[in-house]
# Entry
Amino acid sequence: MLKGFITGVIATLAIFAIVAYIGVTQGLLIPANADASPPALERWAASRSLHATLAREAPKEANPVALTDANLIDGIKLYGANCAACHGAANGEPSTVAIGLYQHAPQLAKDGVEDDPEGVTFWKVKHGIRLTGMPAYTTTLSDTQIWTIALFLKHMDSLPPGPERVWTSLKNPIAIAPPSAVPRENRE
Ligand code: HEC
# Structure
């Protein structure tokens, strides 16, 4: 009786493993294309895992970079060089890269992270977000540079006049997508 049960469990697991192997190797279970919307289960799993990781690992300390005009301007310049291609300039118009990514990159001027703790933004920029186009800057930006960008993103919608001028004159280095390419949910 027990023997039959165990054989049944092993046979079921073996069938699952074979189906999973065939599904993956034939490109059926994990499709490779980026021009699709992520299914609900994938969105749920990715967002639950990200939130749990952030709750555990994002630094809780205050931003060590002081809120001054000079530091905000440094943050804008670092953002322009490293982030604007995907996350856009002040006009909030997505580039062809931002639209083509799977997940689409949010345009931070319209859909910003001012409400997020700066430690959360710091973690996302330092470590990136797996299975999306969001790169990790662990080896390419110093912690101070990442905190400087986090400072700008926190205050993006309430910049003093000097930094605001630098921000509004920043250009997106990548071509802007034609309006017809912008998914409906991202249009004004
Ligand atoms: C190659 C494209 C690309 C570049 C370059 C890039 N990102 Fe991202 N970023 C993404 C994508 C795509 C997402 C969405 C990930 C998701 O859906 O979870 C994202 C997500 C984010 C988020 C989370 C947004 C939210 O609403 O929670 C922040 C913050 C962020 N990026 C900041 C930056 C900063 C700062 C830089 C530059 C240092 C940068 N990114 C560079 C593609 C990019």
Observations:
- The chain is about 50% helix and 0% strand.
- The pocket of heme C is lined by residues 79, 82-83, 85-87, 101, 103, 105-106, 113, 121, 124-125, 129, 132-135, 137, 149 (CB under 6 Å).
- The two ends are 64 Å apart (CA to CA).
